Amino acid sequence: MLNSTAAPLKRSTVEKVINKQIFMLFLVLLVMSLISAIASEIWRKRTVNTHWYLFLKETNVASFGFNLLTFVILYNNLIPISLQVTLEMVKFAQAIFINWDLDMYYAPTDTPAMARTSNLNEELGQIKYIFSDKTGTLTRNEMEFKQCSIAGIRYEEELEESSMIAEMKKSNEQAKKIREFMVALSVCHTVVPERDEDNPTIITYQASSPDEQALVVGARKYGVMFHTRTPSHVVISVNDVDEKYEILNVIEFTSTRKRMSVVVRTPEGKLTLMVKGADSVICERLSPNQPIREVTMQHLEEFATLGLRTLCIATTDLSEATYSHWKEDYHQASTAIVDREKKVAAIAEKIEKNLTLLGATAIEDKLQDGVPESIDKLARAGIKIWVLTGDKQETAINIGFSSKLLKQGMEIVVLNTDSLDETREELKKQQQPKRDGATALVVDGQTLEYALSYDCRQDFITFAVECQAVICCRVSPLQKAELVELVKNHVKAITLAIGDGANDVGMIQAAHVGIGISGVEGLQAVCASDYAISQFRFLTKLLLVHGAWNYSRVTKLILYSFYKNICLYVIEFWFAVVSGWSGQIVFERWIIGLYNVIFTAAPPLALGLFDRHSTVKNLLQCPALYEVSQNSTLFNVQIFWLWIINAVYHSVILFWMPVCALSHDIAFKDGKVGDYLFLGNMVYTYVVITVCLKAGLETSAWTMLSHLSIWGSIASWFLFLAVYSHMWPTFDLAPVMVGMDKYVFGCFLFWMMLLLVPFAALIRDFAWAAAQRTLCKNMRQEVQELEKANLDPTTAVQNVSRKK
Amino acid sequence: MMSSSESEDKGPSRRPKDTKFKQQKLPAWQPIMTAGTVLPVFFAIGIAFVPLGVALLITADNVQEKIIPYTHCKPVAGTAASSHDTCAEYISNNTGATCQCHINFSLKEDFRGDVYMYYGLTNFYQNHRRYVKSRNDNQLRGVKQSKSTDDCDPFYMTENDTTRYYYAPCGAIANSMFNDTLKLNFVSHATLVSVGLLKKDIAWTTDRTIKFKNPEGKTLKEAFKGTIKPVNWQKAVYELDPDDDSNNGYQNEDLIVWMRTAALPNFRKLYRRVNHTEQFVEGLPKGNYTLLVDYNYPVVGFDGEKKMIPDDDILAGREEPVPWHRVLGRRQPLHTPGHHLPHRPHPSRQEVSLSSRFFTAT
Fold first, then answer.
1. DSSP character at residue B8
2. How far is Cα A145 from Cα A129, in angstroms, rounded to an integer?
3. Residue B328 has what pLDDT?
4. Fewest CB atoms within 10 Å of the CB: A104, A437, A630, B292?
5. Of A101, A103, A110, A133, which one is the catalytic site residue?
6. With contacts defined as CB-CB under 8 Å, which chain B residues touch A680?
7. Residues A672-682, buried b or exposed e (16+ Cβ, 10 A)?
8. Strand runs (DSSP E) across B80-196, as ranges?
9. Is B234 inside a domain boundary?
10. Any domain includes B73
11. CA distance to partner chain A, nearest, from residue B194 (Å)
12. Which positions in this protein are listed as binding ATP (chain A) (predicted)?
């Protein structure tokens, strides 16, 4: 709880941009309404005495405020309310697509990916920094006791009977030491044994920490089996002889203490404190004169370079007097109401001293499948990866190499200092001339504390964000969150944190996107996360495919929704120009009401759900494609307003072309003339067609459903017009529409314009798209073309990025 | 299948279904637009538009049009109006009066095929919001005293001391119905031949069959009992065409045409079709014609305003370059309110146009 922060409400960057633009658009709406209302007032002043048929004098209701309101209502859909609804639906479905993805399903634990929020789907396409926990995230969190160092002798696990077991059978000094070591392993822990109901000889262990479990299992392998735990006792069997240890106190592991210890009464009646913990904390507390200290340290280093997790084991005997005195203090501290953890730690210090080093353990935590490949891909996608781990520096560097986070040829800067001044010096050195190659930074927890202090913070972060990879060792959960916050504020880039344990919750909540690994270490991380996956390697598909797709889809959907509404509603403005600024609508009211509900509802949905700018294969093979969405090149304020301008341009063509065509009024072969709604329905038809085709133009991959949405929408309008024209007088609805189907569909001019107007509107868009692709092709388009030609896109992408 | 054997043990597996839809693998067509693909398409569409353009050119050539403005026509000598310079002036001084004027014009070409006669109004805002909704479609359908009538206000009903009279038809659109009468004479070898004009089948057929019906009654006059003619009308709705019952009352096609409100402030409406059955079978031959106008419809100002307003066209043209928005408004002396009848100042210009139709199948 100490490390927890309040859960934040996360919103995507795209959404924030949109909110700002909606505000701007609202101002535009107000300005347009104001212009219209003022024009209306002027028009009225000038016509009130002359245009007798309008009875402007008889009813004097048209006040300025009323007019303004009329126009605000008339133009209200410049801000597409339907966008929010469409967006919610689409994002919800996108989240379901993530859950459905078979590539992110982990069969051994029967876990599919889980999108716990749908707010951040598009944010996944913009990640620049990944903060990853190591244990359980990059690794499997399945610990295996691999090696140990006892009394200065290193034992490696061998396939056959190990040398240690052989030695244990002897009865020399070393055998005694080994025995003592193993007993410590099987007594000093909080593991609970569980006997199989059918076969009581089979014992499984339930542990909160996989390390402890590995140690207990390891000890069992060497003949010291822990099998029973009662509230006050631990029973182990040493070479099939039961020994009963009375557990007097357990001082638990915390991330600040970095050790745990138990006070036991041995079967012989001696009082003993057994401690296991990180080498740094144990070493500080050893009694002087430890002959094996140097050699054990040597072994620890060797273990770490192999990428093994290390722990030191030590004991000390206690006198009855010291213990009984200490017991009182401890009892008080452990029942304290405030600051219990701190108090317990302080009391524990009093007893955890003068330790005798028994040896060290080395536990292997294997990398998960596909981690090196994934890290490589993510790095090639321009994502910088920070690994935050509690491990030793050597262990972390080793894991860094084996996971391809660090590569040969990379310059590795190790910051490992003991004081603030030293840290500052080191950082100053790093500010010197820029290096050519990639740089990796390895920083130690202690140094990090200095580096994050106020006067070094800026130097540190400026240097760190430039590094291709950063490894922070021995960091506390709070530091993890602090680092994420720091980077988030410093570079204004989108960050992602991924972790599996309770200690990652802070950073998962701090980052823009939090990913939880649904693994061995419980559910806290998953509960705090936005997306849960069960393997680190699924991250590549989540980001490079779902993220890139969703970003592209959502941005297209947003731009398109604004476009289609502006396209239609600016026409109201054009009509106001010719209708005396009276606020008359050129369309029938239900027809305009159903615009977003029926006639143009499907194309944005199809864009948001089914569009695929590149195939899965290419997105994974050419991670560089990710940079398109990462750098917001296809969606920003400029592009947003270009779309708006385009929409206005389309509305000009869509309204004024039919107006010019009908300027003779004579629309029909038999000399009859149309009316305002005839013009309106004509214009509306062209709007629906143009807007639907524009959706087609934006669609990169036309699936069956895209076809259905586009052609179906157009068809739905024609169908609706045919039916709706026959409502009146059977229903008290739309008398103005009577005969519209017959006369609109029966008009040669209508069909001729049907070919002409949408084409005239879209020709610019077509030409622009083609010119853009021909003259300055982007990488995404290059890949699309190569894919079509059945060529391998990877080499081409490399060429493109090299040109840059 | 591993998962299926697992699912037998542990209940349903959470393994997602491997369908094309769920895995987002629906086959797709990926159009790629480059200059290489788009230019040929443009070219093809361009070629496809060529016959369209040719067809348009041909029809445009076949369309013949003659426009005769008569806003400021002179009254026929020897009538009551002849003391005035123009008919417009006369009727603005004599509300409700009729002024006759004749306009001679000539057609330089034969007008072949069916010839239609339109009247046109400029700067007349039939598309104004308050105007457009000022009608009652149920009333026009013959439903007596329908409930929703607010739209027609202030032309819904009128009350004298005891009785209520409903305007038939109600509303501003009907109230401002165009009521000039136009006739056409052909001057053939110094003799006048009247050109036969058909007054039916000029409105939308759906309007005639569905939207406009007279109310029930023994006679038409009886059917409209309890109603009163709109304030600006010279005669009641059941007197619109005394010669033809099927063209009278709400079913009068001139009314129906007028009630379909135009989209733009400069509009024309079909007035008559030239009768080609006995005479003028080929169309209208070139030569001299006379347009005979019964001028009723006020389009220029009256009540002394006229004197302060010089020629509309000149001033209007100077003020407003946008052609369809020739606003006439200038500062005018305030009227003293109190007249119940609306003053009837003017839209700027009124014209009649003759035009043969667009797509003659000669």
1. H
2. 34
3. 27
4. A437
5. A133
6. 263
7. bbbbbbbbbbb
8. 99-107, 111-112, 115-122, 157-159, 164-167, 181-188, 191-194
9. no
10. yes
11. 21
12. 133-135, 212, 253, 276, 309, 389-391, 474, 480, 503-504
3-class SS string, A611-673: CCCCCHHHHHHCHHHHHHHHCCCCCCHHHHHHHHHHHHHHHHHHHHHHHHHCCCCECCCCCCE
Contact A371, A377 (CB under 8 A): no
- At A454, the amino acid letter reads Y
Q: Three-class SS of residue A242?
A: strand
The structure tokens listed for B109 are 């070409």
Q: A-B interface: how many C-beta pairs under 8 angstroms?
A: 268
- The type of residue at B10 is K
**A114-139+369-533 with A144-364: one CATH topology?**
no
Burial (CB count within 10 angstroms: exposed 0-12, middle 13-18, buried 19+), residue B12: exposed
**Structural contact between residues A181 and A311, judged by C-beta atoms closer than 8 angstroms:** no
pLDDT digits (tens, 9 = 90+) for A392-402: 888 888 889 88
Q: Give the whole-angstrom CA distance, residue A360 versus residue A303.
A: 10
pLDDT bin (cut points 50, 70, 90) of residue B361 is: very low
The verdict on residue B222 lying in a domain is no
Residue showing tokens 């994050």:
A452
B positions 62-101 inside 8 Å of A (CB): none
**Helix boundaries (H) for A431-514:** 445-451, 454-464, 477-491, 505-510
Length of chain B (residues):
362
| Nearest Cα to Cα of residue B349 among B65, B67, B63 | B67
Choose the closest CB to B357 out of A58, A669, A675: A669
A651, A570 contact by CB (below 8 A): yes
**pLDDT for the residue A24:** 93
Residue ranges, chain A, pLDDT below 50:
1-3, 159, 803-804
Mind telling me how many Å the CA of B29 is from chain A's nearest CA?
A: 5
Mean pLDDT, residues B104-115 taken together: 85
- Beta-sheet strands, E only, within A28-126: 114-115
Domain spans, chain A: 114-139+369-533, 144-364, 544-803
Owning domain of residue B73: 65-80+104-126+180-200+261-317+337-352
Instruction: Tell me the ipTM for this assembly.
Output: 0.85
- Nearest by CB to residue A770, choosing from B38, B207, B298, is B38
The structural domain count of chain B equals 1
Reply yes or no: is the peptide bond before residue A729 cis, omega within 30 of 0: yes
For helices A454-464 and A477-491, give the axis angle rounded to 10 degrees.
70
Fold of A114-139+369-533: Rossmann fold (3.40.50)
Widest CA span of chain A, in angstroms? Answer: 123
The DSSP element (H or E) to which A360 belongs, if any, is strand A356-367
CB-based contacts of B68: which residues, under 8 Å, 6+ apart? B103, B105, B291, B351, B352, B353, B354
pLDDT, position A308: 85
CA torsion sign for A478, A481, A483, A489 is: negative
Catalytic residue flag (residue A732): no
Name every chain B residue with its beta carbon within 8 A of the beta carbon of A710: none
Q: How far apart are CA A65 and CA A45, in angstroms?
A: 16
Weakest-pLDDT range from A236-250, A373-387, B48-62, B114-128: B48-62
Q: Respond yes or no on whether the N-terminal peptide bond of residue A477 is cis (omega within 30° of 0).
A: no
Cα B217 to its chain centre, rounded Å, is 30
Tell me whether residue B110 is in a domain: yes
Contact A214, A258 (CB under 8 A): no
Q: Which residues, other chains included, contact A402 with Cβ-Cβ below 8 Å and sequence gap of 6+?
A: A307, A367, A372
Fold of A144-364: Calcium-transporting ATPase, cytoplasmic domain N (3.40.1110)
**Does B57 score more than 60 pLDDT?**
yes
Q: Across-strand partners of A532?
A: A114, A516
